[in-house]
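During the second year of the project, the team shifted from modelling isolated chains to modelling whole assemblies. The rationale, set out in the original proposal, was that interfaces cannot be judged from single-chain predictions alone. As a representative example for this report, we include one of the complexes processed in the last quarter. Its constituent sequences, exactly as entered into the pipeline, are reproduced here:
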Amino acid sequence: LAKTTQPISMDSYEGQEVNITCSHNNIATNDYITWYQQFPSQGPRFIIQGYKTKVTNEVASLFIPADRKSSTLSLPRVSLSDTAVYYCLVGSSGSARQLTFGSGTQLTVLP
Amino acid sequence: GAGVSQSPSNKVTEKGKDVELRCDPISGHTALYWYRQRLGQGLEFLIYFQGNSAPDKSGLPSDRFSAERTGESVSTLTIQRTQQEDSAVYLCASSFTPRLAGEHEQYFGPGTRLTVT
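Output from the structure prediction step:
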């Protein structure tokens, strides 16, 4: 079972780039890395997913080094509305139980 | 509807009573998940349905918890003889069948907030 470790909280200011790193030392060969965003009183929302190297979409980038033991979610030019909890999730289709959400990182964007 | 819906949005029940929570997944999604989220904590996996395969019930915390799914549509999570420790938000998510091993882009509903008094 791939366990993930993330910082509990981070603060940033509007307009800055934010990087949140997740450690997953025992990631398995078939595991993908997925990041979700959760606002208070809402269900999590998919942000980005990757297997290796770099993935970019309209809202974020995901950097995964060659050993895949960590990953970094990069949010460019954050705004106040990016204040949320961000979860790193590592798992495969072998068993949904392996899709374990940790406690997440509370990102607070300050004006 | 366009997204995953859950009902009720809030449920207050007395200790010892049974409750039933409902989830309507996105049409066409073959996979359905239930999670529990206690206040200020991460999501705890409960159960996973994938098409006609036997559900993965490995996350259910006790035999008081059970879930059913009708084909690839509605799912109900039932908690019998509720306890105060069952108080949490219960989240449902659905997804397409993973194209590749590891792909699990889940779409979550708004959750049901259960309070056991």
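Chain B touches chain A at residues 4, 31, 33, 35, 41-45, 48, 50, 56, 58-59, 91, 93, 98, 101-111 (CB under 8 Å). The mean pLDDT of chain B is 90.
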